[in-house]
From TrEMBL:
It is an enzyme of class 2 (transferase). This is Pseudouridine kinase. InterPro entries: Carboh/pur_kinase_PfkB_CS (IPR002173), PfkB_dom (IPR011611), Ribokinase-like (IPR029056), WH-like_DNA-bd_sf (IPR036388), WH_DNA-bd_sf (IPR036390). One of its GO terms (molecular function) is pseudouridylate synthase activity. Keywords: Kinase, Transferase. One of its GO terms (cellular component) is cytoplasm. It comes from Rhizobium wenxiniae. Transmembrane segments: none annotated. Residues 84-350 form the Carbohydrate kinase PfkB domain. Its EC number is 2.7.1.83. It holds the Pfam family HTH_24.
Amino acid sequence: MTQPLAPQESAVLALIRENPFVGQQEIATALGLARSTVAAHIAQLMNKGYILGRGYVLSSEVRAFCIGGAVLDRKYHARTKIVLETSNPVESTRSLGGVARNVAENLARLGSATGFISIVGDDDGGQSLLKYMREIGIDVSQAVTTSERPTAEYAAILDAEGDLVLGIADMNIFDLFQPDHIERAWPHLAASNWVFADCNLPAEALSALIDRCRNASCRLAIDAVSTHKVMRLPKDLNGIDLLFMNIDEANAILGQTSPHTSEGAKQAALALQKAGAGMAVVSAGAQGMAVAGADTIEFINAVRAAPVDMTGAGDAMIAATLHRLLEGDEIFDAARTGALAATLTTECNASVHPDLSAELIEANRHRLTN
Ligand SMILES: Nc1ncnc2c1ncn2[C@@H]1O[C@H](COP(=O)(O)OP(=O)(O)O)[C@@H](O)[C@H]1O
Ligand SMILES: O=c1[nH]cc([C@@H]2O[C@H](COP(=O)(O)O)[C@@H](O)[C@H]2O)c(=O)[nH]1
């Protein structure tokens, strides 16, 4: 959804690029325009994401801005078959999570310049989460801290194969994320190439973001997060350039019962496009995912894995897909790399592979079969 520049806007932008400190009157004189006209063009350039704020500071280097969940994850890994309604021995681990946070960390590890916006509590967990993100080079300058609620928590009970048996989420803090927060961060979001949001955001914030991105040069990708949270998306999916969800989430929002097969995933992806999404990726666990591009649809097989923990596989798939799109791949090749990143993530205990890098992907590329 690129918003092209009018010729006068391009001329104003060229002068600002030459000299970021150029004044409005100087631009007006150079181009033979009224100062008020220049002011209007500058406002448009800000809206479209070409320049940031007052002082005409040019866009930062951030190419992907992730916005949504920042969560403290706890995982309880059962070593034997889980028996309900009694005590089960587990091994527990703590890590950082949240779909948007996981995607941001994966993007940064792959080498994309990344920004991250969320809301965290004014507590140790929230502070150390932001510190960690900062230390791996992510721009967290727009993140919000509140003393009203604690940082979000997610607990996952995994069976002996690493599959999720039960997840519980205290994410009430995200209700505080309002369209105002989007407005405040908007120049930063608009200046990036891709904005990625997850449905941890409240419905009003998601709608505000979708409306804003519809008329901006950045592209918008969204992940559903869960069958419950996907219902926060508007009925009209226009304005979403790339939508990620699994078959259950697609069935929930579409009111359909597509089967858990490659054909079911394809049906669902096409239906999401019919509802307005530009492109749609519908994943089907160990089978792979249907990728509906602008003109064609493909089913991309999952990459065979020796999984130990499935947490974060979908988030790695999204991040690697976006990373490759930023590098210029078309959607199908990008999604193939996404499938490989997902597999690598299932093979480690962490929600984000601690050694993920573009080199690790290349070293494993031979594992791709389609
Ligand atoms: N057991 C598995 N083996 C290999 N790849 C997997 C496996 N499970 C998931 N994946 C990969 O992760 C992607 C997302 O997984 P999925 O379980 O559908 O998403 P979510 O976790 O969002 O429900 C899949 O399309 C696939 O590429
Ligand atoms: O309502 C939510 N549940 C779970 C998550 C996050 O999703 C990640 C795991 O995702 P999955 O199991 O789908 O790969 C975890 O890091 C968890 O914090 C989230 O953001 N929102």
